[in-house]
Amino acid sequence: MLGVLGDEWSLLIVQQTLLGATRYGDFVDALPVSHAVLSGRLRTLVTEDLLTRREYQQHPSRVDYTATSKSRSLWPMLTSIWEWERSWVPEHSHPLPAMRHSSCGVLFAPRLTCRSCETPVVSEKELLAQWGPSGGWERSVPSATTRRRSAERRAGVLFPQTMTVIGDRWGFAVLVAAFVGIGRFTDFQNELGAPTATISGRLAIFTAEGILHTVAGRYVLTDKGRALLPVVVCALEWAQRWYPDPDGPAVRVTHVACGHRFDPKLTCDHCLEPLRGAQISTS
């Protein structure tokens, strides 16, 4: 998952596809991306079965790109990102619109809910995360680095602060580590095995953006950082669904209240019914 979605352009291209973009020019119009980068990411997304490439005209050759089941199932993660940016990132040049649930017809906020007991989950303290048989930091951190884009170049993207987390593989690994209780600089470095400059850089960015703050020498999630919980668990659920390991899951998450495996579900905070991607529109 980190290898495929831990790249801001890949996630943004999938997001644009789910919003209706299908042709190369649609992506060029929507994203401040170079032709070389766009062409490369489209090839990768097709290879990873996140997009389907179809030639609809031969002379001259023209193709379109459509979402697959694999990419459509990212809607819980993308919905959680949308809600987090609306709630916690006020500096959008154009405010993000609210989301409407077509089933009940009202503007809503998604609620993270346990599928087993139907109880809302509002804090990471309600969940217990443990490594599964195929898990471990050495298999869960990026094997390659990606170039971070400057704040000025990120200004044109739809989810600027989310991209500092999801759009950066080391950033996502640092965030997950914070969610499972790692707090001291040396512990981040020892657990993740990252260079000192990499850890210090990501921690500095998260602190500047209000996702982490320091308490008695430890980096601790703020309310803003803890509100990323739905993004993290929906990303994890997607990863383990589409990239299963024959040895078993990489991470086991238990809902402490009911004692069952935590399978995340998003529900409407108004009608309390389960959400479906096709029922969500912007207003």
TrEMBL record:
Keywords: DNA-binding, Transcription, Transcription regulation. It comes from the Bacteria. Gene3D superfamilies: Winged helix-like DNA-binding domain superfamily/Winged helix DNA-binding domain. The keyword S-adenosyl-L-methionine does not apply. It holds the Pfam family HxlR. GO terms for molecular function: DNA binding. InterPro entries: HTH_HxlR, WH-like_DNA-bd_sf, WH_DNA-bd_sf. Residues 1-93, 155-247 form the HTH hxlR-type domain. Transmembrane segments: none annotated. This is Transcriptional regulator. It comes from Mycolicibacterium obuense.
